[in-house]
Amino acid sequence: MIKKEEIRNLLEKEKQKVTQQLRTLKESDPFEDPTHVTDNASVDTDVREQEAHQRIEAEMDALRKKFKDIDIALKRVEKGSYDTCNRCNKTIPAKRLELIPETIHCVSCEEDLVR
Fold first, then answer.
1. CA 6 to CA 52: how far, in whole Å?
2. pLDDT tens readout for residues 99-115
3. pLDDT tops 70 at residue 40
4. Binning pLDDT at 50, 70 and 90, where does residue 43 land?
5. Taking every pair of C-alpha atoms in the chain, what is the biggest distance, in angstroms?
6. Gyration radius of the chain's alpha carbons
7. Counting beta carbons within 10 angstroms of the beta carbon of residue 59, is it exposed (0 to 12), middle (13 to 18) or buried (19 or more)?
8. Residue 11: Cβ-neighbour burial (10 angstroms; 0-12, 13-18, 19+)
9. Cross-strand bridge partners of residue 77
């Protein structure tokens, strides 16, 4: 298993990455443009901007959830329960934690929750 400090560093890097992705998405949102309200764009442009805004909002919601999940994982590292499934209390395989460092469930429990 990876050392506590390595896990913390991995999660902190992931948190920084998510923060940057959120910033980039916000900057690309057409509704963040101050001239958006006052421009006289055609209807099809308004529709495209609305669709882009909705897509960006959905992506940002997913990233905000991931950010919260990373914070939870960091707390689990401190408590010493990082590699333990929240549902069944079995050890989460290291490979799963490498792929999804913020996960709180083993594969079996995750599958049960998705069904």
1. 37
2. 999 999 999 999 999 88
3. no
4. low
5. 59
6. 19
7. middle
8. buried
9. none
| Contact between 97 and 11 (Cβ < 8 Å) | no
Position 102, amino acid? E
- Residue 5 in tokens: 């400090």
Length in residues, the chain: 115
HEC letters along the chain: CCCHHHHHHHHHHHHHHHHHHHHHHHHHCHHHCCCCCCCCCCHHHHHHHHHHHHHHHHHHHHHHHHHHHHHHHHHHHHHCCCCECCCCCCECCHHHHHHCCCCCCCHHHHHHHHC
Reading the block at residue 87, the tokens are 């549902």
pTM metric for this prediction: 0.81
CA separation for the pair 35, 32 (Å, rounded):
9
| Dist CA 41 CA 1 (whole Å) | 56
Quote the tokens at residue 109.
């429990």
